[in-house]
TrEMBL record:
Limits of the N-acetyltransferase domain: 45-198
PROSITE patterns reported in the protein's UniProt record: GNAT
EC number(s) recorded for this UniProt protein: 2.-.-.-
Keywords: Transferase
UniProt key word Amino-acid biosynthesis: no
Organism: Streptomyces orinoci (Streptoverticillium orinoci)
Record-given protein name: GNAT family protein
Gene Ontology molecular function terms on file: transferase activity
Keyword Repeat: no
UniProt enzyme class: transferase
Organismal lineage: Bacteria, Bacillati, Actinomycetota, Actinomycetes, Kitasatosporales
Amino acid sequence: MESRYWPLYGLVLTTPRLELRLPDLELLTGLADAAAQGVHDEAAMPFSVPWSDAPPEERGRSVFQYTLGTIAEWRPERWVLSLAVVHQGEPVGVQGLNGTGFAVTREASTGSWLGLAHQGRGLGTEMRAAVLHLAFAGLGARFMTSSAMTDNPASHRVSEKLGYRPDGLETAGVQGRCRTLRRWRLSREDWEERRTVPVRVQGLESCHQLFGLP
């Protein structure tokens, strides 16, 4: 899908096993289905915004609405890029890249979810590696950040594997409870030293203005 009014639809990231792109309505429906089928154990809550604590249909609808909202609310000075992650032709999750004042700070953060049926195969590492390449090699980032609940070891393993360094703790109120998140920070130098996943980026040049870049 291409649009001269919204060239981000032509942005595609490709890794050995995955394709990441802004979802059209058909792909977005598939993502909603993947979310409805479950993204984590019901006894846990890995997100600071507990969107996944809902019945399947409502969970899928929230993914649908949130993704469309990121497009509607996009500004060059504050943006959220929510890319569908496609594996073997099937949408399996979302990899986000978020920037506020990116043109000045050259710093952005990531967030993601992966369908429960597709976890444990290294796809989480590969999809985050894809947007790190986009940020550093494509957009000229200096730093990338991430955070996860302290009781989410899978996310911390991904950060460590990709070269992030610990960056302190923060607290958040989630579902009426005080939760602790561990922050991570990745410099361009550490990314260059640790990157191992080959990533191909297509369609970025026409998107620079939307990211606030010349």
